[in-house]
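Each lists chain and fold; for instance:
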Amino acid sequence: MRAAALLALLAITACDNMYYDDGDSVGYLPVPTGVSYVVEPVGTGTAPAGILITWNDTYDPEVYEWRVYSRASTGDPFEFRGATNSTSYHDRGAPYLQYFVVSADYEGYESAPSAIVTVDEYLALPKPSWLTSTSLDGAVALQWNDNAYEDEPAAFSHYRVYGAHYDLDAGSCENDWALEGTTVAPEFIVAALSNGVPRCFAVTAISIEGYESLWSPAKDDTPRPDARNVVIYARQYQDAGSGFRFWQDIDDDLRVDAGELGLPKSGTSVAADFSVERDGSNLLWLKPRRAGTTLAIYGAVPVEDLTDIDWAPLTGYSAASAEAKPGWGYVFETDGGDGYARYGAVRVTHVGKDYLIVDWAFQTDRGNPELVRAK
C-alpha cells in the first residue's frame, strides 16, 4: 500500500515538473517563477545597451543552475542564451523579443519553462518637456517638469541627468555627453564644476523596466562664484572695507586662484571695482571706482533673490553712482584687462547708516553675461 501511494505521489509531481531538455522523460525540478526584466538605458533614447533577466530563487538543492532561452520574434524557435548560478542573467547588446528560464540539475536535466516575458519597447515614458537651470558657485542647479511621474506614477523609476561641454562662441553643445547622476525628484545639482566653464545639460525619464525616454531640451549654463551676506562699510565711516573687488587678478591662463574673488578693499583704492559712499542725507550709494568699471541698475523693481539677476544687461551702464536700496539688484561691467568685459552682480539685503550688506556673484568666463539662470 505504501509503495502504491508513493508511486501515485511521484506521478502527480511529475505532471507539475516536466523534463524540458529533450522531452523524452519526466523531470522533478521546480519551474522558475517571478521572471521579469530591466533594460539598460544608454543615453540615446533609442535601443538599450543590454537587458537583465531576474527570477525568484527556488532554494531547491537539486537545482545546479538556471538556463535562459530567447528568440528574436514569435515565429522563431527559442534558443539557448546562457546559464548562471545566480537568479539573474545579463544579456549584453540589443535585447531579444522574448525570454524564459528553466531550472537544471547537475546532469543537465531541465524543468519546464517559466512564463515567457516579452520585451516591450513601447513602455518608454514621455520626456521632460522643459529644463531650466540656476548657476551656482562651482555647481549648477537643474529643474524640469515632472510629467513622466505625473503621467504614469506606477511606471516611473527615476531620471537620468547628462552633461557635456558647451561652445559659447558657436552656441552649441559639444558631443561629449556623459552621465552626471540620477534622481527621483525633478531637480538635481551638478556639483564639482569649474567656475567660468560653460556646460550643457539634458534629462531623460526611466521606466521601471529600464526604458529611457527621449531627451529633454538641452540647456546651457555656466557656474560662477558667489557669496552671501558680505558687509561693505561706508567710506565716510571707515575707509578700510568700504570698497569691493570682484576678481583681483586675471592670469594669462585665466585661472581663478583662491583668495582672488570677492575681496574687500579700501574705498579710496583704485583697485576697487566700487565703493560705498554716504551723502549728506545719510543715504548710501554704490560708486564705480576702478577704471573700466561701470554700473547699471537691474530692472525697475526690487529682486527677491540674487539668483533672480540672471543675465547682465548689454546696455545702460555708466560711471555714475546709484543709491543702494534694500532688495534692489545692480550689475557691474568690469574691464578684464584682456579685451573682454566681465560681469558681477550685487543684491543689497540691508542698508544701515554706516554699512550695507550684499549678496554678490561674478562670472569669470570672459565676455559671458550669464550670472545666474540660463533662459
Observations:
- The two ends are 85 Å apart (CA to CA).
- The domain at 131-221 is CATH 2.60.40.10 (Immunoglobulin-like).
- The CA atoms of residues 131 and 144 lie 4 Å apart.
